[in-house]
């Protein structure tokens, strides 16, 4: 447990994805981080044939016993965390919720541990063709649970190895106001206790961005 | 020439013995009558053989028949012979009588008649009395047995009571009971059966008259217990006995005989056997760095270097021996915690064998509830790994862990107590947390100076684990230590030194003295065997006095105090150093005889010293 911040790493055209990953890994190893295997986050999309409701089913290797699914009807997102057999259930309801294979997206790469920090360098690939889409860097500060408290620390840490590409403000996901069911005043995620689903939702946001880019690219030449 | 001797073989005159009675009298068979004799001889004849006789034998037969015919030719010869014999006898008798008449060679005595025994009336009375008495006894004993069966303990009632507490079933004519823990979840292979029977001979005067008798298989008879000993270089540190019976309670002889106690003992034997069986199996299977040894009824496992845990199964069939042993044991150092733990661990296994978490779906049978919740609660990798590690721990691993922890706790206690005893100046108090887990406990250590509690107080927390210690100091530093007690000792001593210096620092601030320098690890001076000396340098408000303090980090907490004056008391300007202004440089530091100073403790003495050296501005 801890607070996880997900930042996209902007790629210029000089270097390819694997090169950047290698460079960042070297930097981390120079900071005396230890590599502890690899990680994988993947996202599937199931779309209803009646209304355009989508279910995003996601897996995170950090939570190997869980399946995260987010029901998205356009206005609202409803998260659900279940056992691994949820995957089998989704196969059963295949006629109603059809899997969109070409929208399957995953982020995988090396995982580093550095003191209380956990750093994952994920290269995002999409559909079966494994086309490279970009880099997502995940930083997890494990001793803390409230994002606003440790954001400055994480920002500083990110500056340490990302340099100029490090973000200056907390991701938008944390500053969006969320309606509070118990109180009239809405609250921000950054003040709330961090949950594993927050990591998944951050991934989902970025995945959706990549998907939109891809669709735009595909639509572009046709026009 | 060999002389042939004719040996005559005759049948004995006595009749054959038919049987011998219990009192030794021999019953003879009646002599055979003539017809019986004939039939016996006839039976011996082989008629088949006679029919196959040769001609020679036929001729012989004819010769015998002719002789018989000749003998019976004179019909009165038989009578003649008999008369001749009678005549001879009469003649002989006459001769004998004639000789005896002379009374010279032969004397005739009258033949004594068979004496008629005189029947004494008293003897008859006695004999009858005796016979009647015996008959009466038989009747009385029979009557008593009947009476007992009516008034004494009823077999059926007792069977009912037995049935309420024990599992019984009827197999043909026998009642078989079940001692095993199978219904409680045990998977031990021993059948653990006993047989219930009705006994006729009841001791009514006994403490527990009972017609019900239980028969227990021989391997479950007697008393058993599991002995746990922690041994350090052949010297027992603590031991524990595991039985279901409170062995401190005294056993009455009557209690042993009652079936309830008998069954309880037998069940206890079964329990101990199962426990030991399980432990021995695990000891063989476990891949420890120092392999566990199983010899006979003993398991040896190494807890920490030089310290061994010995678990042995003691089984004796003699109740008296057992009682004597338990009397001895009462004086022994006895660890109830280990005893209880072993007991509890096997029970837990039993419980888990029967109590499955409620099945949620077909795939989830036998999975722990925590594991089922892991998915929806999104446990991360670390938590899941911890969970599987905890679940897969065997009984032996758990008990070794607990024993190690008990040992570590004792060691830590000893170190803290001995330091608190040896070091007088700052007081060391340790608070042990009353609520702890079998493998983790923690202690809070407070270092205070009497009278200066508000000025300074050093606190640290030590977590005692299975094989290691973790100390969290007040400044947030976390220190991991191994099982060696010296490491903890060094840490505490270092904390004491630091406490003294910090205390002095705070005190000097209150007294308006200035802190010049402060070092926790003074690199100069004598080389310390362990750790470095702490030092502080403070100046008086006017800056005319400087005190230097060094606290050595050894078990005696040696304190050295030096004082320097400014201006110098005896300043002589020489050719090298000229001018009056140089006298304001501090003079040489002079050693203060700190032991002789007034004051209860270090801070108290320092307060006096600072007060004495402070010069009030005029």
Automatic annotation (TrEMBL), chain A:
Pfam families xref list: Med20
A single BP term in Gene Ontology: regulation of transcription by RNA polymerase II
GO cellular component: mediator complex
Main localisation: nucleus
GO molecular function: transcription coactivator activity
UniProt function note: Component of the Mediator complex, a coactivator involved in the regulated transcription of nearly all RNA polymerase II-dependent genes. Mediator functions as a bridge to convey information from gene-specific regulatory proteins to the basal RNA polymerase II transcription machinery. Mediator is recruited to promoters by direct interactions with regulatory proteins and serves as a scaffold for the assembly of a functional preinitiation complex with RNA polymerase II and the general transcription factors.
Keywords annotated in UniProt: Activator, Nucleus, Transcription, Transcription regulation
Family listed: Belongs to the Mediator complex subunit 20 family.
Domain of life: Eukaryota
InterPro entries recorded: Mediator_Med20 (IPR013921)
UniProt protein name: Mediator of RNA polymerase II transcription subunit 20
Record has Hydrolase as a keyword: no
Subunit annotation: Component of the Mediator complex.
Compartmental location: Nucleus
Name of the encoding gene: MED20
Automatic annotation (TrEMBL), chain B:
Statement: the UniProt record of this protein carries the keyword Iron-sulfur: no
GO molecular function: transcription coregulator activity
Annotated keywords: Activator, Nucleus, Transcription, Transcription regulation
Lineage top rank: taxon: Eukaryota
GO biological process: regulation of transcription by RNA polymerase II
Compartmental location: Nucleus
Gene Ontology CC entries for this record: core mediator complex; mediator complex
Major localization class: nucleus
Pfam families xrefs: Med17
Task of the protein: Component of the Mediator complex, a coactivator involved in the regulated transcription of nearly all RNA polymerase II-dependent genes. Mediator functions as a bridge to convey information from gene-specific regulatory proteins to the basal RNA polymerase II transcription machinery. Mediator is recruited to promoters by direct interactions with regulatory proteins and serves as a scaffold for the assembly of a functional preinitiation complex with RNA polymerase II and the general transcription factors.
Family statement drawn from the similarity comment of this UniProt entry: Belongs to the Mediator complex subunit 17 family.
Alphabetical list of PANTHER family matching this protein: MEDIATOR OF RNA POLYMERASE II TRANSCRIPTION SUBUNIT 17 (PTHR13114:SF7)
Subunit description: Component of the Mediator complex.
This protein's name: Mediator of RNA polymerase II transcription subunit 17
Gene source species: Chironomus riparius
Recorded name of the encoding gene: MED17
């Amino acid at each position: 447990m801890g607070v996880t911040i997900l930042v996209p790493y902007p790629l210029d055209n000089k270097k390819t994805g694997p090169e950047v990953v290698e460079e960042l890994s070297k930097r981390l190893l120079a900071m005396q981080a230890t590599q502890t295997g690899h990680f994988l986050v993947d996202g599937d999309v199931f779309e209803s044939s009646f209304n355009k409701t989508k279910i995003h089913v996601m897996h995170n290797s950090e939570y190997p016993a869980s399946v995260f699914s987010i029901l998205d009807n356009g206005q609202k997102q409803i998260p659900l965390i279940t056992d691994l057999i949820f995957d089998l259930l989704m196969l059963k309801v295949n006629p109603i919720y059809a899997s969109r294979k070409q929208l399957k997206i995953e982020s995988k790469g090396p995982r580093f541990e550095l003191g209380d920090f956990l750093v994952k360098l994920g290269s995002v690939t999409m559909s079966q063709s494994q086309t490279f889409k970009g880099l997502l860097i995940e930083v997890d500060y494990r001793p803390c649970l409230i994002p606003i408290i440790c954001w400055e620390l994480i920002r500083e840490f990110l500056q340490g190895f990302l340099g100029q590409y490090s973000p200056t403000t907390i991701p938008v996901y944390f500053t969006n106001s969320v309606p509070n069911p118990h109180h009239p005043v809405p609250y921000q995620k950054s003040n709330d206790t961090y949950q594993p689903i927050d990591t998944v939702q951050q991934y989902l946001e970025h995945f959706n961005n990549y998907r939109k880019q891809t669709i735009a690219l595909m639509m572009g030449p046709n026009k | 020439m060999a002389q042939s001797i004719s040996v005559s073989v005759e049948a004995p005159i006595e009749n054959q013995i038919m049987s011998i009675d219990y009192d030794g009298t021999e019953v003879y068979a009646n002599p055979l009558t003539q017809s019986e004799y004939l039939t016996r001889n006839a039976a011996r004849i082989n008629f088949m053989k006679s029919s196959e006789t040769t001609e020679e034998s036929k001729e012989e037969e004819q010769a015998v028949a002719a002789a018989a015919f000749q003998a019976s030719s004179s019909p009165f010869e038989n009578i003649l012979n008999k008369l001749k014999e009678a005549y001879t006898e009469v003649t002989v008798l006459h001769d004998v009588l004639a000789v005896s008449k002379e009374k010279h060679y032969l004397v005739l005595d009258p033949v004594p008649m068979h004496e008629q025994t005189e029947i004494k009336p008293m003897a008859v009375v006695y004999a009858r009395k005796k016979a009647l008495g015996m008959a009466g006894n038989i009747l009385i004993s029979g009557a008593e047995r009947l009476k007992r069966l009516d008034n004494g303990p009823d077999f059926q009632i007792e069977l009912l009571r037995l049935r309420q507490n024990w599992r019984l079933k009827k197999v043909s004519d026998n009642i078989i009971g079940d001692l095993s823990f199978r219904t409680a979840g045990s998977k031990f292979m021993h059948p653990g059966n006993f047989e219930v029977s009705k006994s006729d001979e009841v001791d009514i005067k006994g403490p527990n008259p009972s017609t019900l008798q239980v028969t227990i298989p021989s391997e479950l008879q007697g008393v058993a217990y599991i002995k746990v000993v922690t041994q350090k270089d052949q010297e027992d540190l603590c031991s524990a006995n595991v039985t279901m019976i409170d062995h401190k309670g005294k056993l009455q002889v009557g209690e042993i005989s009652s079936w309830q106690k008998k069954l309880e003992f037998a069940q206890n034997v079964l329990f101990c056997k199962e426990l030991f069986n399980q432990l021995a199996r695990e000891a063989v299977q476990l891949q420890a760095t120092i392999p566990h040894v199983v010899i006979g009824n003993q398991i040896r496992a190494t807890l920490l270097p030089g310290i061994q845990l010995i678990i042995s199964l003691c089984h004796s069939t003699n109740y008296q021996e057992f009682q004597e042993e338990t009397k001895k044991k009462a004086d022994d150092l006895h660890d109830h915690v280990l005893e209880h733990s072993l007991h509890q661990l096997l029970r837990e296994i039993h419980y888990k064998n029967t109590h499955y978490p409620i099945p949620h779906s077909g795939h989830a049978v036998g999975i722990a509830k925590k594991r089922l919740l892991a998915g929806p609660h999104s446990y991360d990798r670390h938590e899941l790994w911890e969970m599987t590690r905890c679940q897969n721990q065997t009984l032996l691993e758990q008990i070794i862990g607990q024993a190690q922890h008990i040992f570590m706790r004792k060691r830590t206690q000893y170190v803290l107590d001995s330091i608190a005893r040896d070091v007088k100046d700052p007081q060391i108090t340790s608070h042990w947390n009353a609520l702890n887990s079998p493998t983790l406990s923690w202690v809070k250590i407070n270092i205070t100076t009497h009278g200066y509690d508000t000025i300074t107080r050093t606190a640290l927390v030590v977590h005692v684990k299975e094989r290691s210690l973790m100390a969290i100091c007040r400044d947030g530093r976390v220190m991991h230590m191994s099982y060696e007690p010296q490491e903890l000792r060094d840490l505490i001593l270092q904390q004491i030194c630091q406490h003294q210096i910090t205390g002095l620092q705070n005190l000097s601030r209150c007294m308006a003295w200035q802190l010049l320098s402060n070092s926790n690890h003074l690199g100069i001076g004598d080389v310390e065997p362990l750790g470095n000396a702490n030092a502080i340098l403070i100046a008086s408000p006017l800056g005319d006095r400087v005190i230097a303090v060094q606290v050595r980090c050894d078990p005696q907490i040696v304190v050295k105090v030096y004082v320097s004056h400014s201006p110098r008391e005896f300043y002589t300007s020489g050719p090298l150093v000229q001018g009056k202004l140089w006298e304001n440089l501090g003079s040489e530091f002079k050693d203060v005889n700190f032991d002789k100073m007034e004051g209860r403790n270090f801070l108290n003495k320092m307060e006096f010293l600072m007060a004495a050296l402070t010069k009030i501005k005029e």
